Amino acid sequence: MSYRFELLSNNSETRRQFIDVWSGFTAFFRDECGALGSRLHYGEDGAFYAYAQWPSHGVMEAAQDVTPSQNFLKLRLKWAELCGPSEVLWQGETMADLLLPAQ
């Protein structure tokens, strides 16, 4: 899936906090739900763009049934302070993966 996120206030502190929250979400989905990870980019338009990779659509759907941790719930509250509604840009199955793992 690919997403676009626009921050409510676009200053360096808000961007840093957003990256921290996004990293926490990614860790939860990776460690507790079977996601393969995500990458975050900052666009020239001042928005953040991310894509998440899952082993299958079924694993991604099953993540909705995972009970969120207390930390995840705190991250959701912080997210609401930082970011407007997320926009899903596209969703689909991975057909080929030529990215190297982050080092």
Descriptive overview:
The chain has 103 residues and is an alpha+beta fold. 40% of the residues lie in helices and 19% in strands. It contains three helices and four strands, in the order βαββααβ. A four-stranded antiparallel sheet has the order 2-3-1-4, with helices on one face. Helix 1 runs antiparallel to helix 3 (70-82). It is globular and about 35 Å long. The chain starts with a strand and ends in a 13-residue tail after the last strand.
Structure, briefly:
This protein is of the alpha+beta class. The protein contains 3 helices and 4 strands.
The poorly predicted ranges are: none
Number of distinct beta strands? 4
Main sheet makeup: 4 strands, antiparallel
Mean pLDDT: 93
Beta content comes to 15-25%
Shape: globular
Structural class: alpha+beta
Radius of gyration: 14 Å
Order of helices and strands: EHEEHHE
How many helix segments?
3
> What is the helix content?
25-40%
Q: Largest beta sheet: what is the strand line-up?
A: 2-3-1-4
